[in-house]
Amino acid sequence: MSIYLKLIWAYLKIGLFGFGGGYAMLSLIQREVVDSGWITSTTFTDIVAISQMTPGPIGINSATYIGYVVTGSVWGSLLATITVVLPPFVLVLYASHFIRRHKESAIIKGVFMGLRPVVVGLIASAALLLMNADNFGTATPECLKSIAICVASFCVVYFTRIHPIFIIIAAGIIGAIIY
Fold first, then answer.
1. What global pTM score does this model have?
2. HSE-up of 85 (CA within 13 Å, CB side)?
3. What is the pLDDT of residues 84-110, one digit of tens each?
4. Cα–Cα distance between 165 and 120 in angstroms, integer?
5. Per-residue CA distances from 4 to 72, 93, 99, 122, 132 (Å)
6. Is the CB of residue 150 less than 8 Å from the CB of residue 51?
């Protein structure tokens, strides 16, 4: 099977089953592109970081980048991006019409009550997926510094009103100093 067909199949699955946004679909993207051998775990971690710094959703940004890396062409980027966007676009068009007509239905309300915890679980799974040696280091002192930055960032975001951009900038400066 050609790499383009494999790319279409991988991103079709990601687009169809990637509920809950970019973070929730990270484990699915990782399974499709790292486990298949297209990219390394380190490259995947770098893609996640780059996707966070660039405008747009992480799923689309990563599809564009991975499509290019895997095929070596802009066509691969375009193909992966369109393939990851098309299924949710069609599903949202249909679902919005359906939900609008049946918004008071107990079944529809039950479906959404069931989906909410799944999305939280998928986001938690993405957080655990990113807690690896590529992000925290392998040496004990390096790992402890990374954990301290992670915990401090979480606490500042959760307990203060400081904008996350300032926390990202501060973490970058701290990282440049202590590493």
1. 0.63
2. 14
3. 999 889 988 988 888 888 888 898 889
4. 23
5. 11, 27, 35, 28, 30
6. no
